[in-house]
Specification:
Strand content: 35-45%
Number of helices: 6
Radius of gyration: 21 Å
Helix content: 10-25%
Number of strands: 8
Shape: globular
CATH class: Mainly Beta
Order of helices and strands: EHEEEHEEHHHEEH
Bound molecules: flavin-adenine dinucleotide
CATH architecture: Roll
Strand order of the largest sheet: 2-3-4-7-6-5
Number of domains: 1
Oligomer: single chain
C-alpha cells in the first residue's frame, strides 16, 4: 500500500512529526471507528454530520434515506472532508498549557458519486453490516426490495488523506518537573457492556461470539 501524496491540502502543519500519510496507518484508524463525521458545504454553509461509514479499498461508502440531504448533496460530485477520531488518553501536565490528549485521527478528502448498480449496492450493504460486526451479514435477514429502494448509497473515492497521532506522556517545561502537581495520562477506552437480549428472543437463539467478544480492534 502506498502513501497519499503530501500537498497543501493534507499536510499536517502544527507538530508535523505527528502526521502520517500511509494507508497502513490511516485505514486502521478509519476502520476501527464505528462512525465518522462528514463535512460538506451547501451554498457556503458548512455542515458536519455524524454517520456510519464503511471502507472498501480506497473508497468510503455512506448510506441513508433517499431523502437524506447530505447524501443528495454529495452524490452530485461535491467535495467532502471525512474525519475519524479515537481518544486514547487524557494527558495531565504540570502546567495548564501542556495538557493534551493522546489520540489517533484521520482526515480524508474526496468527491462523491451515487452508487446505482445492484452489484455495488449489495456489496456495500454487506460491507456496512460487516463494519459493525464481522459475521453479522451471514446471520441477519438481507435487505428486501423496499429496503433496497429506500436506501441511498454514495461512494467517496479517497483522493487525499492524513492521520495525526499523539501518544506518550505529558511534555512539560523543564522547570515545571519540580512542581508538586500530579501529572500523567488517564487512559481512555471504548468499552462494551454485557449484551442485553431482545425480550421476544427465544431461549434457543444463542448470542453470537462476535457480540460476546465484541471489539473494534483489528477491523482492517
Ligand atoms: C482529540 C483531538 C484534540 C485536539 N485538540 C486540539 C486543540 O485543542 N487545539 C489545537 O490547536 N489542536 C487540537 N487538535 C489538533 C487539530 O486536529 C489540528 O491538528 C490542529 O488544529 C492543527 O492543525 P494545522 O493548523 O497544523 O493544520 P491545518 O492547516 O488545519 O490542516 C492541514 C491538513 O493537515 C491534516 N490534519 C490536521 N490536523 C489533523 C488531524 N488531527 N488528524 C488528521 N489530519 C490532520 C489535514 O489533512 C488538514 O487538511 C486536536 C486533535 C485531536 C484528534
Amino acid at each position: 500500500m502506498s502513501d497519499f501524496p503530501k500537498s497543501d491540502l493534507n499536510t499536517v502543519k502544527r507538530l508535523p512529526k505527528r502526521g502520517h500519510y500511509d494507508r497502513e496507518t490511516i485505514y486502521p484508524i478509519v476502520d476501527e471507528a464505528l462512525i465518522c463525521h462528514v463535512g460538506f458545504a451547501i451554498e457556503g454553509m458548512p455542515f458536519v454530520m455524524p454517520t456510519i461509514h464503511t471502507r472498501i479499498g480506497d473508497t468510503i461508502y455512506l448510506h441513508g434515506a433517499v431523502a437524506n440531504r447530505m447524501l443528495n448533496h454529495i452524490k452530485q460530485g461535491y467535495s467532502v472532508c471525512i474525519t475519524v477520531t479515537h481518544i486514547d488518553g487524557i494527558v495531565f501536565a504540570r502546567s495548564v498549557f501542556h495538557h493534551s490528549m493522546n489520540y489517533r485521527s484521520a482526515v480524508l478528502f474526496g468527491r462523491g458519486r451515487v452508487v446505482e448498480t445492484y452489484e455495488e449496492k449489495w456489496k456495500v450493504f454487506e460491507a456496512l453490516t460487516e463494519h459493525i460486526a464481522k459475521g453479522r451479514w451471514n446471520d441477519a435477514r438481507k435487505p428486501n426490495e423496499v429496503e433496497d429502494k429506500t436506501t441511498a448509497i454514495v461512494a467517496i473515492e479517497i483522493e487525499s488523506a492524513s492521520a495525526k497521532i499523539r501518544s506518550g506522556p505529558a511534555g512539560d517545561e523543564e522547570e515545571d518537573y519540580a512542581l508538586p502537581v500530579w501529572a500523567g495520562v488517564l487512559p481512555v477506552r471504548m468499552e462494551f457492556g454485557p449484551p442485553e437480549k431482545d425480550a421476544p428472543l427465544p431461549e434457543s437463539v444463542e448470542t453470537p461470539q462476535y457480540i460476546k467478544n465484541y471489539t473494534r480492534k483489528g477491523k482492517s
